[in-house]
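Dear support,

Our group has been running a series of protein-ligand predictions, and this particular one with adenosine monophosphate is the one our PI (initials K.S.) wants archived with full inputs and outputs. We had some confusion internally about which version of the output was final, so please treat the block below as the authoritative record. The input we submitted was:
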Amino acid sequence: MLDKFKDECGVFGIKPHHEAANMTYLGLYALQHRGQESAGIVASDHGYLTCHKQMGLVADVFSEEALARLPGDAAIGHVRYSTAGASLLANAQPILINCHHGQIAMAHNGNLVNAGEVRRRLEGIGSIFNSNSDTEVILHLIAKSKKKTIEEAVIEALSQVKGAYSCVFITKDKLIAVRDPHGFRPLVMGTLGESIAFASETCAFDLIGANYEREIEPGEMMVVNELGMRRSSRPFKEKPARQCIFEHIYFARPDGIMFGESTLAYRERLGAKLAEESPVEADMVVPVPDSGVTAAIGYSNLSKIPFAFGLIRNHYVGRTFIEPKQSIRHFGVKVKLNPVKSLIKGKRVLLVDDSLVRGTTSRKIIKMLRAGGATEVHMRITAPPTTHPCFYGINTPTRKELIASSHTVEEIRKYIEADSLEYISLQGMLDCLENSNPDNYCHACFSGEYIIGFPGQDKESMEV
Ligand code: AMP
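Confirmed final output from the archive:
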């Protein structure tokens, strides 16, 4: 089965740079939070593309020797996380192919909603697929294209797919960055001397010392040619922008600029807005680290309830959310977080987190806080209830696993055993945007307003 709506990824690309693979390694290192399952780089050297990719974290996948085997003045890279069923090396990216256009490799962030349909059509005429990732569909379409230039072939291929793609391509002499017309997932451009770099987030530029220039706009294609010159075009039919609001709320690193907003400042405003919308008497504001920290500061500043690190995180444990089995996930929370008993004992705790998905994490944390001596635990969430799965590149579980899809806030409060539970309102979340237009955002995971439907969507595929 196709890995339909389960990818979370980070991409990077640079050209020309005499240490292109090293720069890409650093870029991926900064983007590690976007995917921890596999990492890969393809470098282009005198017209020849070489690939190294493996399961694992960036620092484990790339040794000095592995990077030395990736010579060249241009490179792209990818970090990926997916669900257990699809955690195969075959799905790791970049994907490198050789076709009548020559060698071409691609790194993709986002999910295509019609990949299954296109794949079945291609298989029907004899195409053989190596992976179950939707990205491979794009490469097959490129290989099938009769267009003369690789840019035209990329445009023709992308015109046949629907959904989210922020991606980078590398060929023997070009680096190409493209963002889908809705611009679901981020993609930014920077410069480092003569080099042009692309990345999912600006933090990748900070690490390599590149200057952030601007976003690749929704529907824009940027080609860096053999001379290192760039050319922008808008090859697709214009569509309304639908940038992912959840990148701001949770997924992106807080130290960057995304969709024109400082992620950290936005999260702080979310916390303050929540304090305004749902005040409560409490002795301390405690964040669920790390995701709730910035919003908790915002809540504390507005409510004047002191901020306290009442929960300490073990930074060497992976995200509990990505554990495939329920039993391990429950255990994982305990391994990852520990309450500071001396702080919380006898106190009314206002607990802040960015989102509540299945509810298992909050339930466990609240139990831990009570066991540690908290007299009351009030939960505040800086996102509206997550009622719908994401089809565009965030790893949300299926609809029936989303507790808010079938339970009221009061039922969820009971399940997580909180004294009170409040979510930010959808309008409140949008009102916190300061530098970007709220109409340009996708919030389907909270509102169910999908701009592109999934074939056979509604009940069936949302419940698979
Ligand atoms: P849950 O137990 O499913 O309610 O998990 C909620 C926790 O998962 C919150 O602390 C969120 O920060 C975190 N979370 C939300 N979405 C994701 C995601 N796509 N990947 C990993 N963690 C997430």
